């Protein structure tokens, strides 16, 4: 059977699975935002990405050893997020959720706000929000200092106690927000269908959610133009992009 026909039948079967599923969970990664112009961790080869290991930059050690370098990296990425717009994949999910309240829950590893800007309600963010900041260390001042009053430096610092501002994201070696992780794990165990979109499946505990869903009896489908570490967990891998495939599944 010609490849195109196989792909068409696979999309059709996945579309029927989406229509039949009562509780759908979407687990998204950087590939979800790639067609919005935000480089994935894998593809990013420009600017500071090309010169430094993201896992080094995205760590407390990395920030403490060179706060300005890490702050500038996040400033570069924040500008990219602000300039980006949701793609057809984000919009297809938001439209489906609006038309069928309670049927679709998004769990994302992404620190951008494109799912939210597309109109998706109540997105579970496992790795934080790149557009928010918080104090690096607990504020030691008698009256906790308001981050908004920080001295506008790179990174901004507290005029009272010298505390540094950091992006409100989860760095490697840091715990995920317990409430978000607990909700994500219980949704994974209860869903009928988990759609894994645009992730290499290399970062834990996020990547472990697909096996949780499979072991609990859910169907697991992958949307990714390339092979990933989660292919073995999936019932079907749809080799296409988020913006091309999701409108076909949720249209
Ligand atoms: C790398 C890995 C080996 N290391 C980890 O997983 C570590 C350590 C670890 C924990 N458990 C383990 C178990 C096994 C092995 C290691 C570990 N995990 C942690 O450190 C976690 C924290 C992990 C979170 C780190 N923060 C991020 N982001 C925020 C920051 C920032 O963004 O700056 S992770 C970051 O990288 C990950 C990148 O992965 P992807 O999103 O998948 O992107 P990638 O580029 O890799 O792939 C893109 C994919 O898209 C596809 N694609 C491309 N274009 C498209 C397209 N158009 N459409 C569709 N798909 C597309 C490509 O083919 C590709 O497959 C994302 O999660 C992203 O959020 N914390 C923790 O475990 O804490 C413990 C703890 C517990 C208690 C108390 C204290 C501590």
From TrEMBL:
Q: Which reaction does it catalyse?
A: N(6)-succinyl-L-lysyl-[protein] + NAD(+) + H2O = 2''-O-succinyl-ADP-D-ribose + nicotinamide + L-lysyl-[protein]; N(6)-acetyl-L-lysyl-[protein] + NAD(+) + H2O = 2''-O-acetyl-ADP-D-ribose + nicotinamide + L-lysyl-[protein]
Record GO terms (molecular function): histone deacetylase activity, NAD-dependent; NAD+ binding; protein-malonyllysine demalonylase activity; protein-succinyllysine desuccinylase activity
Where in or outside the cell? Cytoplasm
Superkingdom in the source lineage: Bacteria
What's the Enzyme Commission number for this chain? 2.3.1.286
Question: NAD: is it a keyword of this entry?
Answer: yes
Residues in the active site?
127 (proton acceptor)
Q: Which residues does NAD(+) bind?
A: 109-112, 198-200, 224-226, 242
So where does substrate get bound? 74, 77
GO cellular component labels: cytoplasm
Recorded hits in InterPro entries, A to Z, give: DHS-like_NAD/FAD-binding_dom, NAD-dep_sirtuin_deacylases, Sirtuin, Sirtuin_cat_small_dom_sf, Sirtuin_class_III, Ssirtuin_cat_dom
Q: Which residues form the Deacetylase sirtuin-type domain?
A: 3-251
Q: What class of enzyme is it?
A: transferase
Keyword annotations from UniProtKB, A to Z: Cytoplasm, NAD, Transferase
Under NCBIfam families, the record lists:
PRK00481.1-3
Protein task:
NAD-dependent lysine deacetylase and desuccinylase that specifically removes acetyl and succinyl groups on target proteins. Modulates the activities of several proteins which are inactive in their acylated form.
Q: Which family does it belong to?
A: Belongs to the sirtuin family. Class III subfamily.
Regarding domains, what does the record say? 2 residues (Tyr-74 and Arg-77) present in a large hydrophobic pocket are probably involved in substrate specificity. They are important for desuccinylation activity, but dispensable for deacetylation activity.
Query: What protein am I looking at?
Result: NAD-dependent protein deacylase
